[in-house]
Give the backbone structure.
Amino acid sequence: MQWANLAQYSAFIAILTVTVRPLGAYLAKVFSYQPTVLDRLMLPVERAIIRLVGAAAERPMKWHEYFLAFVWFGVAGAALVFLILKLQTMLPFYRLLGKDVLSTPMTDDLALNTAISFATTTTWQAYAGETTMSYFSQIVALASQNFLAGAAGLAIGIAFIRGIVTDGGGVLGNFWRDVTRAMLWVLLPLSIPGALILVWQGVPMNLHPYTAVTTLQGAPQLIAQGPVAALEFIKNLGTNGGGFFNANGAHPYENPTAVSNFLEMLAIVMLPGALCFTFGAMTEQRRHGWLLYGVMTALFTLGLAGMHWAESAGNPALARAIAPYTFAGGSNAWTGNTEGKEVRFGTDGSTLAAVVTSNGATGSTDAAPDSLSPLGGGVAFFNMLLGEIAYGGLGTGLISMILVALLTVFIGSLMIGRAPAYLGNQIGIAEMKLVALYILIAGMVILPLTAWAAITAAGRAGLTTNTGPHGLSSIAFAYASSFANNGQSFGGLSANSPFYNYTTSAAMLAGRFVLNLPALALAGTFAAQQRRGITSGSLPSDTVTFAVLLIVMVLLIAGLNFLPLLCLGPVAEHMMLWG
């Protein structure tokens, strides 16, 4: 590993770590209704929204009420996006671009898939934004959901923390107030300066028609314009990832410089990382909160090292075919696998982005995932199969980590003859059933959908460029990405078909709502308990030993669920490539 690569990776983790404490403490104050610097500006707006919502925003909610509000909020958001997309030809700014530019038809299945995608923070895109969406659709439908769906995800994470903290009563807070606070106190104040920095770096923010130019070869070309900066920062901060352009973060208008790339990657993980400190502050167990952050960082570093090694190895097929001198001690020895990567970021910048986005529930890639080496793509695939817990999405990463921590506590306590308890909450049969259900849902969704696509003509029709192990990886990666509410895909899979639009929609809904059902039910179970406090009879959860056990448990769960799929896909392709 070159020093420049190591410096970039180290600087990223160091800067993230520095932001964890102040941002996490701020989040704890916001959702504990303690005074903050933004109260004078935001409290009047919050009161106006609460009056608009009505009595539903005033009463405390138990877990099932909180979950139903979360579902209805998502359904309403999806319905709004669907209507706007189907009616965009009659809405403002459509004529500005014209039907010759917006050439992709907005079919019912594509509109439904896109609506569900943005309402679940997946932002899976089976279309090219510059040839499909009007400016009105991009701003009013898609950008608004980046804020609203991201705020709803953060609210779920806060409600889960409250479930562990609450001492009897079973109350998790109020969904409507939490969403409002997440929007006004967190996402908006961070997104506005972030978007302005991106404008400074060269990201467009306009409502101009596309620019017609003539290339050096004399061919006509349209250069897309638009309010890109308005979508770019919040798509990363809200762990959404949907790009204004088809190339997403690889497009020079979305991500023009190394500075913008670094900032956008940091925006993806800063809130999920800070939630570890928020958890420690709200539970009054800051050592445990830092331990969770340390485990996330260790897993993130392992993935970063694995992908860097895989992408630095180069491509032996290229070396054997046309350029053996570059592979054996020449330029390929240090540039590695440059296929599908932007030269302005290099292999190391693209590697960092691939690990951040696959770990962070945000498919805002700055390179082509389809062009990753087999094991490099396998690392991204495995990160999503882990449950994106390092650092995960807004709320979802922390929830996944805590669920695995509960399993670790349960097994570890039984092994040494202690009563299973987590931060003063007793772990019994009911709690473990919910934990087991949460862990099994991913395999119950991803594996059957992958098998269905692989054995049917409609599923295999999407494999327009790849077959064999890489084709299987393309299909499985799509469903893992959809279920993880991530949104990135291998470009070799043509996903804009009724089959994939409907099946990936089902995976997105399962990853957003079905997965959060046992999580909130577990939070409600803990909230109804009388906390007994941490005693000497409980397994310590703030030690290095516990951290090691937690890391092993994370890797073991994903391995047991998905090892055969990984072997048939990325591992088999790697062996064929290097064989």
Notes: Residues 178 and 205 are 30 Å apart (CA to CA). The first helix runs from residue 3 to 31. Confidence is low (pLDDT under 50) at residues 324-334. The two ends are 25 Å apart (CA to CA).
